[in-house]
Automatic annotation (TrEMBL):
One of its GO terms (cellular component) is catalytic step 2 spliceosome. Residues 633-663 are annotated as: Disordered. InterPro entries: DNA2/NAM7-like, DNA2/NAM7-like_C, DNA2/NAM7_AAA_11, P-loop_NTPase, SF1_C_Upf1. Residues 355-548 form the DNA2/NAM7 helicase-like C-terminal domain. GO terms for molecular function: helicase activity; mRNA binding. Residues 46-141, 266-345 form the DNA2/NAM7 helicase helicase domain. The lineage of its organism: Eukaryota, Haptista, Haptophyta, Prymnesiophyceae, Isochrysidales. It comes from the Eukaryota. This is Intron-binding protein aquarius. Gene3D superfamilies: P-loop containing nucleotide triphosphate hydrolases (3.40.50.300).
């Protein structure tokens, strides 16, 4: 209809556009044949980014915190794999953590794991027991070959074929061409002749015995003939996929050494190859010498990759010998230039050579068209406001606005969902630098760890709490304090992560405790990009510990700290509340139930009191349990005595015989 409105054809007739609905093909009869559907609902701008990624050339995607950059990158890789199955895609990230995030989400998409390969270190942090290194993938393909050949033997047995067709991939291929495919063609001819005849498909289908182990009957009794034919075609697709996968295993059967198999996997077999930019730089010579080729490049965290590092993944291959041109067709850069830039420790290179400017930031600054994702689904709207001002348009997804969702519930034990906590050192020391650039603040570390202990005592799981800071020295100090205060008590345990802001970029958690350390100067948090990363890691609760007057007086930080200092700078707690959360965030709070923590000493006393109460409650529960066990044992003993008759032992305790009666 749209084309018809654009103009009229020859003779004044309007062109007609024929639109037919898409009919999904029937999947195979086994659960692994079912199509894995992406549960993520993409926003219009994410769809636009995915459309741009499918086009040849360069595509830029700017993704503010929580807008689904990784989901967009993963879906782009999946789309490229399905739209261009003969092309290969190279995935590059700045860190191993980001690479693992991409890989874990790829495993949830409709991407067969035999097409995935991960190079470099950090794979042990993947949340899966499967090995995606070169050696692991070779072993997987060899094991998969044996499984598929066993299935071929089962198929031959169901068809009464006596030959040893499952010995090698080659004999299996001959079996498919000589026996399996002709029988399917004969079945199709019979199905066409039978038409809608009832039971014809089930009667003529040649592989019924092979599919006898399906979870549900291949041909539903009440289904129509067309439905039976559709099910038969789905089963045939399962058979064809089995032999196609065996054909891919043939090279691993012919190559005899692990080295040759690994190189073949890297250069020919894997459709999606993932590595960090550092690994690409280290292994470039080896990859080029192996004639490594790829067609698409997807670079996540592009704003954190130095300009020279960004060019290296583009030149990991020599020009095509047939055309003399590079095979690279598409480059997708995804990042956020408002977050942390590349790390360059040498100040001369950083400031005067501008090596801290990424290629992504340069292209955005020069006006290259970019797609900006505009809806975040990570943080509460109030927490997102702390960094929303940095972006031209950043809305909230319905998930974070839902009145019955987790974002609508308050943080257990806290009056506010985010708060700036002023920390005054009782000793008047503040920050210290035992080594150059190794800044620590003991009072702040103790306050943060005491707050963590309080959260654990209220019942918040340790896995939902992370502690981040802006300096390596403070991170090490926090780890030491956590080990000393919490390490020996199973009631607390360590938080999910204790990390610097720079290392925590790209990660998130429900509750974040942020330590800003400095008391004499603002330090490198004056870089607003580091502030944006620090404030955007929390989903449900954010508590910032710092010297409040120092940071609130910094002009660069005013848009965020003006919102933080609008609330009290003394930590306000509801000590009677316990997890899981039940109070709504907008529910009124009785001021009499609020405990305002004056300083570090008060926080320590509060945690010590709650710890003693928890120990007393545990002791009482243990005493009650012992008393109940003793009562149960006593009751059981009494029953056994009652079951003892005439001195004969029926239970575990015997009763003496009664004296004989006198005549």
């Amino acid at each position: 209809a749209g084309e018809g409105e654009a103009g009229e054809g020859e003779g004044g007739e309007r062109p007609v556009v024929l639109v037919e609905p898409y009919e999904r093909r029937a999947a195979g009869p086994y659960p692994q044949d079912a199509l894995r559907v992406n549960p993520v609902r993409f926003t219009p701008m994410q769809v636009e980014a995915l459309r741009a990624a499918m086009s040849a050339g360069l595509s830029l995607v700017v993704g503010p915190p929580g807008t689904g950059k990784t989901d967009t990158a993963v879906q782009a890789v999946s789309n490229l794999l399905h739209a261009y199955p003969r092309q290969r895609t190279l995935v590059i990230t700045h860190s191993n953590q980001a690479l693992n995030d991409v890989f874990e989400k790829l495993l949830l998409r409709d991407v067969d794991e035999r097409h995935l390969l991960r190079l470099g270190h950090g794979e042990e942090l993947l949340a899966t027991e499967r090995d995606f290194s070169r050696r692991g993938r070779v072993n997987y393909m060899l094991g998969r070959r044996l499984e598929l050949l066993a299935r071929v033997e089962a198929l031959a047995k169901s068809l009464d074929v006596p030959a040893d067709v499952g010995y090698t991939c080659e004999t299996a291929g001959y079996f498919f061409k000589a026996t399996v495919a002709p029988r399917w063609e004969a079945f199709e001819a019979e199905a066409r002749r039978a038409g809608d005849e009832e039971g014809a498909v089930e009667r003529h289908f040649p592989f019924s015995d092979f599919f006898a182990d399906t979870p549900s009957p291949l041909f539903a009794p009440a289904a129509s003939g067309a439905a039976h034919l559709d099910a038969a075609r789905g089963a045939w697709r399962h058979v064809v996929a089995l032999f196609e996968e065996l054909e891919e295993c043939r090279a691993f059967e012919l190559l005899r050494s692990s080295y040759d198999r690994g190189n073949y996997l890297l250069t020919k077999h894997a459709k999606v190859v993932a590595m960090t930019c550092t690994h690409a730089a280290i292994k470039r010579k080896d990859l080029v010498s192996l004639a490594f080729q790829y067609d698409n490049l997807v670079m996540e965290e592009a704003a954190q990759i130095m300009e020279v590092e960004a060019f290296i993944p583009m030149v990991l291959q020599n020009p095509d010998t047939a055309t003399g041109k590079s095979r690279l067709k598409r480059v997708l850069l995804i990042g956020d230039h408002h977050q942390l830039p590349p790390v360059v420790k040498n100040l001369a290179f950083q400031k005067y050579s501008r090596l801290d400017q990424s290629l992504f930031a340069r292209l955005v600054r020069l006006g290259v068209p970019a797609t900006q994702l505009d809806f975040q689904g990570r943080a509460r709207p109030a927490i997102a406001n702390l960094y929303r001002w940095r972006y031209t348009s950043l809305g909230d997804l319905p998930g974070v606005l839902a009145p019955d969702g987790p974002h609508a519930l308050a943080v257990p034990g806290f009056r506010h969902d985010f708060q700036l906590v002023h920390v005054a050192d009782p000793q008047g020391v503040g920050e210290s630098t035992p080594l150059p650039h190794y800044v620590q603040n003991l009072a702040e570390a103790e306050f943060v760890v005491a707050t963590y202990m309080y959260m654990r005592l209220t019942g918040i799981p340790a896995s939902r709490i992370s502690i981040i800071t802006t300096y390596n020295g403070q991170r090490d100090l926090l780890s030491d304090v956590v080990d000393r205060r919490c390490g020996s008590d199973a009631r607390y345990g360590p938080p999910r992560a204790i990390a610097t802001t720079d290392k925590f970029q790209g990660q998130q958690n429900d509750y974040i405790l942020l330590s800003l350390v400095r008391t004499r100067a603002v330090g490198h948090l004056r870089d607003v990009r580091r502030l944006v990363v620090s404030l955007s890691r929390a989903r449900l609760g954010l508590y910032v510990f710092c010297d409040a007057p120092l940071f609130c007086g910094c002009t660069e930080l005013r848009p965020a700290f003006s919102q933080l200092e609008a609330r009290p700078t003394k930590l306000q707690l509801l000590t009677a509340e316990r997890a899981p959360p039940a109070r709504r965030l907008d529910a009124p709070v009785d001021d009499g139930a609020v405990t305002e923590v004056e300083d570090l000493v008060s926080m320590g006393k509060l945690v010590a009191r709650m710890h003693s109460e928890a120990e007393a409650a545990d002791a009482a529960d243990a005493g009650a349990g012992r008393a109940a066990a003793a009562a149960a044992a006593a009751a059981e003993g009494g029953d056994e005595r009652a079951r003892t008759v005439g001195g004969r032992r029926i239970g575990t305790e015997s009763v003496p015989d009664a004296p004989p009666a006198l005549d």
